[in-house]
Amino acid sequence: MASTPTLEFERPIFELEKQIDELKRMAGDQHLSVDEEIAPLQEKLVALRGEVYKNLSPLQRLQVARSNKRPFSLDYLRLCFTDFVELHGDRLYREDAAIVGGWARLDGETVMVIGHQRGRDTKENLRRNFGMPHPEGYRKALRLMKLAEKFQVPVFTFIDTPGAWAGLGAEERGQAEAIARNLFEMSHLEVPIVATVIGEGGSGGALALGVADRVMMLENSVYSVITVEGCAAILWKDGKSPEMRERAATALKITAQDLLELGVIDEIIPEPVGGAHTNHEVAAASLQEALIRHYEELRKIKPEKLVRRRREKFLKMGQFTE
Amino acid sequence: MAWFKKEKKARQPRRDRLEIPPDVWEKCEACGHTDIREKFVRNFSVCPNCDYHRRIRAVEYVQIIMDDNSWEETEADLRSTDPLGFPDYAGRLKKARTNAGEMDAILTVSGKLGEMPVNLGVMDFAFMGGSMGSVVGEKIARLAQKSLERKHPLIVVSASGGARMQEGVLSLMQMGKVSAVLSQLADRRIPYVSVLTNPTTGGVSASYAMLGDAIIAEPGAVIGFAGPRVIKQTLGQDLPEGFQTAEFLLDHGMLDLVSHRKDLKQTLGRLLRHMSGKPAAAGWATS
Ligand SMILES: [Zn+2]
Question: What's the structural domain count of chain A?
């Protein structure tokens, strides 16, 4: 079925999908075989998807990353892992549904999985605050990481947030401290940590799950120090117009390819042609392969060495002259 | 009040407070109180009438905190590049260097505080709003490495609107970098004290500023993750009186102390002596 395009640049893909659907429907009504007519159209569709996605601008990439049709943390939990038992609450204030986490199995072995969770519709987004955690979300994440460390189990995180929530309660309860504490504790957690940006990696609220031995990004995900809108608003007093947002998206270097070149991430995980939203199962298989592969490497490293290397990895980040 | 001059003359702040004629009058930005400039200067640039803490330069904090003639600047040669080729960044850097008379938004020094060897980093809001890019992160990381090697306490005075967006995600990663080296300091039981001045927000507050074994703030300093303007926007109404001030954070359990600038040095010294198992020197424990 052709899905309604939420992304303007996907319109040609949408039109072609519609055409194929229409042909199939007519054929069904009249009991005709149209396989011969459909086959070239299907081929054309694959080629078109490839063409459109090969040439995405950074702003379009951001739109893909934010799409609510993409797989979220809970989708990957369902598709890459088994035996998931969700754990709730920070034991300090309350449960925050903008971050999910719990025990699961990867390739049969127990692991801890923690990720930002967005909502697919308005109702769920209100519950999950559009994947923008309060301090209690980060404190829940930290509690689960410490739990993983206690039982010597690796941690897998999924990053998918526009940023940490900016609001009265979040400030009163120490949003800054909650994020800082996670960076600090993740720096010396004595179990392997693998972080993957699956959608939008927005600023400190993303990094709070991102201090890891391996940091990866899905092909169409983005990672940025500030939202494109915020950057454009501050620098050019216009955070709304497509031109200024495009300018900021380009200048900030937010795509997976950019981050690989800047030495911030270790690997780009390929998505199915046309983006992860076209086929959740294929996207999840691609991610699962990388997660297993990295864990196989990391599990051989002794805790002290693991921590030393993780620190060295982050100490190397940045560019300057002297 | 001469300080140790290791660096070239160009690296001193432009305004030299020490040569101001005594008959110049100043007006407090907060209460409108007018007084001769010397009164402000002698009071650590704090209004003698209302205690408003005026913004001062990094080198002035160093002079306040460190023993006279005891310190020298470290890592003075680190310079920001323009790793992203970000629009106007090279020009902004040049302008900031000229205006601030510093190479980046932090001054790092090694020296003594109450005869105790310490490493001190002070952010300078005059340089691009104290924004944190690769140089700020690297200078703190190297200063902390010095603390690790010599087992000397670390102090960082923050004044920053957050990460420097012109260096993109590399600025973001400085939060991870400094937090990583601070965790190493913690593992070796080397004390780290964070001092928060006006303002401390964004990526700086969400990393090293909030990670001190003790956290001290100056009265009235605005401290938070999101800036007041952003929260006002999401809230759609005015913020409560005193929201995000040092006193507000103290009430909410986010700080250990709010300290007047005139007491800063003594407070730091007493805290560090408690945390490094050293007895207080004569005179330190009083008042
Ligand atoms: Zn005043």
Answer: 2
Q: Per mean pLDDT, which of A5-19, A258-272, B2-16 is the most reliable? A: A258-272
Share of chain B above pLDDT 90, in %: 82
Local structure of B180: helix, strand or coil: helix
From chain B, pick out residues whose CB is under 8 angstroms from the CB of A247: 87
For the four alpha carbons of B181, B186, B188 and B189, in that order, the dihedral sign comes to positive
- pLDDT for B123-163, tens place per residue? 999 999 999 999 999 999 999 999 999 999 999 999 999 99
Identify any residues that bridge with B158 across adjacent strands, giving them in sequence order.
Answer: B196
pLDDT of residue B284: 57
| Predicted-assembly ipTM surpassing the 0.90 threshold | yes
Please indicate if any CB of chain B lies within 8 Å of the CB of A212. no
Domain that holds residue A47: 8-55
> Are A187 and A229 in a shared domain?
yes
Do the strands A155-161 and A214-218 form a parallel or antiparallel pair, or are they unpaired?
Answer: unpaired
Predicted structure pTM score: 0.93
- CA-nearest of A161, A188, A168, A174 to A135 is A174
Whole-number Å distance, alpha carbon B33 to ligand 1 midpoint, is 5
Length of chain A: 322
Q: Three-state SS string across A196-215, please?
A: EEEEEEEHHHHHCCCCCCEE
Q: Strand order of the sheet with strand B192-200?
A: B72-73, B106-113, B116-123, B154-160, B192-200, B214-217, B257-258
Residue keyed to tokens 């709070």: A208
User: Do the domain assignments include residue A201?
Assistant: yes
Beta bridge partners of B112: B117
Q: Nearest-CA residue of chain A relative to B205?
A: A176
Domains defined along chain B, listed by start: 56-275 (3.90.226.10)
- B9, pLDDT greater than 50: no
> Count of CB contacts below 8 A, A vs B?
194
